[in-house]
């Protein structure tokens, strides 16, 4: 082992990119992935697991340790463990939650904390104004056909019609059978179905047939009123839930649609709002922790699947300034981008694409030129912490 050895811990895109940059600069890389720790990808690392994994690594002679796992918990645990094992070790760690960074730096000035999403977000935001020569070499598909709208629930309408028919039939019956005036007959039927029971008009002295009709009227009206009331309340609640989730047609113009409110999406949304853009966020799950925060900031939030054409249509993609798709999946982002282009071929698409080869193919074959990788932007800044480090400083 030489003093040019660099330890990289992690299995994701950022770890691969940093390893390439470090090797290109002539340093030797020691790489530790999940297999080295003997734990599953989702398991937390214990101090014993970390000690066992680095037992053959001379920490004192390392030039740098990069901790760039996709999970903050792992990187934080590795920082504490490695610094405990070797207080003089220089460590650069990726943490998306930067709240603990000041504490770590105060405890040990050799610790550097970087947030890949925060580093990459300005590049995505600048793409909103980047000059773009549009050279579409293919004819985009026409607007995707929406899924046939579900037939409206006619049950309440049928129940109202049936209930009205029963009331009309009862009014007619009591008018002719018990010789009540039309208004008195209507009054008696309404009082009966409403179960008010004033008693000023009653069936005490009426014939058997009229009493049976009255009993049937009470039973039938109870069932009809209960069902109509229940279904109406259910429809109102469902509609309010849909509105609470932002699921409605927006009439915005020149707004920015942001698909994905993850780590990167959070900082992009903040940056767009700070520059005064009108932002509509599409997030698949309503449990995303930042949803309420951005609603308070003035952004609209639509909880739904941005891959669906009807969701993009509801979000006003036809009149949008741009569509960002920064979901943690290249193919999902591409699908969203192409569906958005089907609505408007000249729409500005800004996609997060991890895979460099995929990004080149998208640019060459589909003429989507504003594609960026968060790790591809952040890796240089991580690697830049290496040259300034001097052993024994």
Name the descriptors.
393 residues; alpha/beta; Rossmann fold; 3 domains; 6-stranded parallel beta sheet; 11 strands
Descriptive report:
The chain is of the alpha/beta class and 393 residues long. The chain is built from 15 helices and 11 strands. It has 3 domains: 5-115, NAD(P)-binding Rossmann-like Domain (Rossmann fold); 155-244, Helix Hairpins; 248-369, Rossmann fold, CATH 3.40.50. The strands form 2 sheets. It has a 6-stranded parallel β-sheet, with helices on both faces. It has a 5-stranded parallel β-sheet with strand order 2-1-3-4-5, with helices on both faces. α11 (291-297) links the parallel β7 and β8 (300-303). α6 crosses α15 (374-383).
